[in-house]
Amino acid sequence: MSYISPTKIDEALEVLSRGSGKIIAGGTDVYPSAQLGQHPDFYMDVTRIDGLKRISVSKDIVHFGSAVTWTDIINADLGSAFDALKATAREVGSVQIQNAATLAGNVCNASPAADGVPPLLALDASVELASRAQGSRLLPLAEFITGVRSTVLRRDEMVVGLQVPVPPSTMTSAFEKLGSRRYLVISICMTAVNLVLDQDNRITDARIAVGACSAVAQRLPALEASVIGQRPADVEIKPEFLAPLTPINDVRGAAAYRYDVVQEQCRRAIMQAASR
């Protein structure tokens, strides 16, 4: 087993083509997820690759390199549509974890309780992948994560970035998270909301995503459609709008409890986003 730290993407892709390795960015999930007696052929640290630690904004796309940390996101000059993502960043572990852990690592870990996924879904994010043999491809985040700890990432492939279409300048957002304590906790459930309001305070665009209530975090299209044309205070979160969710009973909370919490989180996040 070896440790490799390339400085260029081409070098990294060449290394991945050799065998079964483990990519490290922040590395905060590497050892907690390790299995006794099992180890990869190599560990590859991508944090020295030029450009992967950069957040860039063009006319159409906001691009997050795959080594961008949560602290980088907190400090970035982004519009109000990214407030939910920033709120998420402030609640991912301790400050030390935020300084090391990466947005792309959170996505690739593919936990049902991955805090970064709901706000990214509400931003219509896509995942940028690259391999030496297959070249580059761009997938919607909803297609990238396929199940618990499962993604479409191939053995010789790496995530090089996340892309978000530049949101409307009037879009606002909010994030609600429930855990057994304030910090350093796995989410019981969480909700991200992005809204656009017109001059009459009516919702013209709504994106609502929920995590930790199904194998993969997901948008709630029926709820999104139902709020269009309404004022935030008039929105009703009906149980049928939560039909895509399949929460489980576990040590952190019962399924019925999660349903109740999500209804309240959606209401709160809508009101909070609208107030901005």
Automatic annotation (TrEMBL):
Molecular function as annotated in GO: FAD binding; oxidoreductase activity
PANTHER family per record: XANTHINE DEHYDROGENASE SUBUNIT C-RELATED
Pfam families hit by this protein: CO_deh_flav_C, FAD_binding_5
Key word Flavoprotein present: yes
Domain of life of the native organism: Bacteria
Name listed for the protein in its UniProt record: Xanthine dehydrogenase
Residue ranges constituting the FAD-binding PCMH-type domain according to the UniProt record: 1-169
SUPFAM superfamilies: CO dehydrogenase flavoprotein C-terminal domain-like, FAD-binding/transporter-associated domain-like
Keywords attached to this entry: FAD, Flavoprotein, Oxidoreductase
Sections of the chain in a coiled coil: none
Listed PROSITE patterns: FAD_PCMH
